[in-house]
Specification:
Layout: E1 5-13, H1 18-31, E2 42-53, E3 66-71, E4 75-80
């Protein structure tokens, strides 16, 4: 059976520390237009070192037109869906 994501834990989070909230605000400013509707909760995947995220179609409940990704808190990458 094909599994799109292996080796991870998942949650949705709305409330953040002031430091994390500042990082999220910077990411949102880079990834979204001012008039974009954003989800209240942030969908978080904590992928283990040997985990993998394969190409897949995600649920519209947790995805919209833009993904904003932080990898090991080192850099920000933005992916637009066409």
């Amino acid at each position: 059976m094909f599994e799109a994501i292996n080796g991870y834990r998942e949650t949705e989070k709305r409330d953040w520390s002031p430091e994390n909230r500042a990082v999220l605000q910077r990411m949102r400013a880079l990834a979204f237009a001012p008039d974009d509707v954003q989800l209240e909760y942030v969908h978080v995947l904590d992928v283990m070192p040997d985990g993998v995220i394969r190409p897949h179609i995600d649920s519209v409940r947790v995805s919209r037109a833009v993904f904003c990704v932080v990898v090991v808190a080192v850099f920000v990458s933005v992916m637009w869906l066409l």
